[in-house]
Amino acid sequence: MKKRKTYSPGFKTKVVLEVLQERETVREIGRKYEIHPSQISTWKSQSSSNASTVFEKGASKNDDDKEKDALFKKVGQLQLENDFLKKVLGK
User: Fold this and answer.
1) Is the pLDDT of residue 53 over 60?
2) 28/17 Cα distance (integer angstroms)
3) For residues 36 and 4, what is the distance between their CA atoms, to the nearest angstrom?
4) Torsion of CA 23, 18, 60, 50, to 10 degrees
5) What pLDDT digit, counting tens, does each position of 16-51 carry?
6) Phi-psi region of 90 (alpha: psi -120 to 50; beta: other; left: phi over 0)
7) What is the pLDDT of residue 17?
8) DSSP per-residue letters across 6-66
9) CA-CA distance, 6 to 65, in Å (whole number)?
10) Is 83 helix (H, G, I), strand (E, B) or coil?
């Protein structure tokens, strides 16, 4: 079974920006990056529907920042537990 390709948000943004520049057709850009033109159109519509959130005042952290914060919190908790166990077992 063939595994689906996943694309980073940065890559999707790059492709959508190329489409918006209108230097090449969606079909040409699709051939260039080996992506179906309908997928590019989907990304374009998603970006335009979410564009208003870019300029919101006090915009919330994106999902990557939230995940990073959660991971740092977990690492800190594990370090505390590790230090505690070293003290207890070291006796």
Assistant:
1) yes
2) 14
3) 13
4) 70
5) 999 999 899 999 999 999 999 999 999 999 888 888
6) alpha
7) 92
8) ---HHHHHHHHHHHHHTSS-HHHHHHHHT--HHHHHHHHHHHHHHGGGGG-TTPPPPHHHH
9) 20
10) helix
